[in-house]
Amino acid sequence: MAARGIRFEIVLGTVCAILWALVLALQTPFLSAAGLLDLSLYGLYSTGAALGWLAGNIFVARQRRLEGGTRGLLALYCLGPLAVVVLLRSFASQVQQDAAPLVPLYGVVVYWIFFLVPVSFRRAGR
Fold this sequence. Notes:
mainly alpha
C-alpha cells in the first residue's frame, strides 16, 4: 500500500527535478529564455500564492493518507513546485529582470507563506 500510495510523489519529484534542471540550464550563458513571457509581477506573485496554497493542501492531505515516512514529503512539496515560480521569472525580459532583481526572492517568500498556512493548521482539521 505504501509503495502504491507514493507513486504521485515519484511523478511530482521527477517533474520538479526536470523543472529545476531547466532553471539551472537557463542560468548558463548558452541558453536564454528572457523575453518569452510577459508576465506582470502581480501575475507572478499570484502564481506563487496559488502554487503554495495548492502544494500545502496537497501535502496535508497526503500526509494524512500516508502513515509514517512523510519527512521527505515536506521537502518535496516545499521546494519542488518553487521551480515553476523561478522558471516563470526567468521568462521575463532582461530589462524587467535587471530592473527588479529581488522579484524571484519575493516570489519564493509568497510561495512559502501560502504553503505554510495549511501546513501550520493541519492538526485543526482532525
